[in-house]
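hey so u asked for the seq, here:
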Amino acid sequence: MTAILHRPSRTALRRLAGVLRRGGLVAVPTETVYGLAANALDTQACERIFAAKDRPAEDPLIVHVASVTAAATVAELNPAARELARAFWPGPLTMVLPKKRVVPAIVTAGLDSVAVRVPRHPVFRDLLRECGLPLAAPSANPFGYVSPTRPEHVQRGLGDRIEHILDGGPCEVGLESTIVDLRNPARPCVLRPGAISAEAIAQVLGVAVTARRARVLPGARRSGKKTGKAQRAPGLLARHYSPGTRLRLVARIEPAEVLAAGRRVAYLFLSRPKDPRLAALGNRVAWLSESGDPAEAGRNVYSRLRTLDEGGYREIIAERVPGESAFAALADRLGRAAARGR
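ran it, structure tokens below
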């Protein structure tokens, strides 16, 4: 089986909406990364997500909806959530809130909260309106691997496990959404950094926003089975978003080191290296941004990691990114990608 790639059209959206209403899976574009969507209110459909991705049951799913009104059908929206919705939805912000009973336990890893967001990708929004369903949609890739930001990434990773991919072009943001825990609106906590910073959230809410560090969940590898403690939100494993090739982070890559290294070692710079000798080394030298811009680097990181991972290298050495807030999401993803162990 090879997944069918659908160009966005009214006919295609109607067809794919029917697939989703019948309990099927569709890989969909979002502004963050491509997701693997199913009816969030259908337990069996969501089980198909876990099976296709080989995803552990303690890793909950984000529910995507078309509007704030639709969000209120799956989650209890407190005043803080409504303030953030006015400021950032549609957009790359996920809120963890008390769930409504209509949401099945498989979506929330059995917890009493649900992660919900209103995406802004126009193609995905059209599909949400066409099918009239809340859609659970984790990243459309085998669990733990580098997230897909182009339809061809989905095809290479899951093309033999799913039937439909909706082509929305390259993802605008390229990193997964910010996740903020708002169960206690007086103490909001960013569980996963993204394009919307903790500082921006704090400015809207007028309260301090804390951030949570990654933790390892032992044994979290068997699809559909509880092998560890349930997570409050997806994407919190200490090792995640990882290429198959060993990835090592260093404070700075020196040109002399690159020139002396063998051909089986690849290098990933934050910005284009200035030493002209490195250009002669071909594909084993890559960079995330021409000038070190954080948004451009975030948009490119998964594509660069995938390209290097497919190059047959023994090791990928990447530069750590600066510590300021603008690089928080990128630093988080590279740190998890380079972490040891599963």
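The longest strand covers residues 265-271. Residues 246-338 form one domain.
lmk if thats what u needed
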